[in-house]
Amino acid sequence: MESTNEKGSVKITDEVVSIIAGLAATEVEGVADMSGGFAGGIAEMLGRKNLSKGVKVQVGEKDVLVDIYLIVNYGVRIPEVAWKVQENVKKAIENMTGLTVTEVNIHVQGVNFGKPPKESDTKTI
């Protein structure tokens, strides 16, 4: 996205919009993680935090379409979490960039059951 006025131009890259969307999505209660696929997993193993993991954006002149790939926590109402993510992502992108968000598509890729308790946690003395 690029806008121009009498003072100059402002350019916002697709990656910036992806990062905003990813951070807004993970703020919602019930979202365990973002699903980054194979490439995202490799980057994290190498020690790099991928803030746009699980986000795909298509930025036009004045609008943006967002696809979010989530892993939700077990026991949450998935439709409610998805609606909250849609609202939070739309609000964050529009407030920070001035772009109009036309769609926020949610793809639930998995369910996080939490870590099983350690053996030492279940023993009683």
Please outline the helices and strands.
Elements: E1 2-5, E2 8-11, H1 14-26, E3 31-34, H2 37-45, E4 55-59, E5 63-73, H3 78-97, E6 100-112, H4 119-122
Parallel strand pairs: 5-6
Antiparallel strand pairs: 1-2, 3-5, 4-5
Helix pairs in contact: 1-3
Query: CATH architecture, please?
Result: 2-Layer Sandwich
CATH class: Alpha Beta
Largest sheet: 4 strands, mixed
Query: Tally the helices: what do you get?
Result: 4
CATH names the topology as Alpha-Beta Plaits
Indicate the radius of gyration in whole angstroms.
18 Å
Task: Return the string of H and E elements.
Answer: EEHEHEEHEH
User: CA-to-CA gap between the ends?
Assistant: 62 Å
Structural class: alpha+beta
Give unreliable regions as ranges.
Answer: 39-43
Total domain count: 1
What is the β-strand count?
Answer: 6
The CATH superfamily is known as: Cation efflux protein, cytoplasmic domain
Mean pLDDT: 85
Percentage of residues in helical conformation? 25-40%
Oligomer: single chain
Shape: elongated
SS strand fraction: 25-35%
Give a written overview of the molecule.
With about 120 residues, this protein is α+β, with helices and mostly antiparallel strands. It has a single domain, classed as Cation efflux protein, cytoplasmic domain (Alpha-Beta Plaits). Helices cover about 35% and strands about 35% of the residues. The protein has 4 helices and 6 strands. The protein has helices at about 15-25, 35-45, 80-95, 120; strands spanning about 1-5, 10, 30-35, 55-60, 65-75, 100-110. Strands 3, 4, 5 and 6 form a 4-stranded mixed β-sheet that branches. Strands 1-2 form a two-stranded antiparallel sheet. Helix 1 crosses helix 3 (about 80-95).
